[in-house]
Amino acid sequence: MSHGSAIHKEEKVWAAVVAAMVAVFLAALAYAAWVTGLQVPGSDVELVNPKTVLQELKPGVREVAPGRYEVTLVGRMFSWIPAEITLKDPVEVKFRLTSIDVIHGFQIVGTNVNVMVFPGYVAEITWRVPQNYEGRYLMVCNEYCGIGHQNMYGAINIVRTK
Ligand code: CUA
Questions:
Q1: How many angstroms separate the alpha carbon of residue 57 from the centre of ligand 1?
Q2: Cα 161 to ligand 1 centre (Å)
Q3: Rg (CA), the chain
Q4: What is the DSSP letter of 148?
Q5: H or E element: which one contains 28?
Q6: Which among 59, 133, 140, 143 is positioned nearest to 107, based on CA atoms?
Q7: Contact residues of ligand 1, CB 6 A cut-off
Q8: Nearest to 119 by CA among 133, 98, 94
Q9: Going by C-beta distance under 8 Å and a sequence separation of 6 or more, which residues neighbour residue 157?
Q10: pLDDT in tens, 120-152
Q11: 15 has a pLDDT exceeding 80
Q12: Whole-model pTM?
């Protein structure tokens, strides 16, 4: 019995384990994509005309249920419209984002909210707001969009009443 053949057998076992893991990951990915309808954040969900988007989308905050908000923001060189929003006891916020000129990047600093914003498309991203936080979040543009890019920021005020 040679030492070499024992190693060969172990290699086969581990190769089978790795192949099984890859199969499981691919199956999970396929399940997420086709069964639950998972989309990459910022997937284009709606087409809009950048020229009329301010009238069509009515930027601002809507409370759709207690603690659940829908926030529509429009990017424009070099600000978010509206530039400051206040949310009372938010649990979940659905952002709808678009641009009327060039590509911007919407990011809420210190969170996992980060999505590219294209003219002509509405990007959606949902934010589960940390329940222990009260105060101010900074929202910035993280995609270079021109000479005033660094001035393109705004604020999200989180107010807790309970
Ligand atoms: Cu908008 Cu950078």
A1: 20
A2: 33
A3: 22
A4: T
A5: helix 3-30
A6: 140
A7: 75, 78, 104, 141, 143-145, 149, 152
A8: 98
A9: 84, 85, 86, 87, 135, 136, 137
A10: 999 999 999 999 899 999 999 999 999 999 999
A11: yes
A12: 0.72
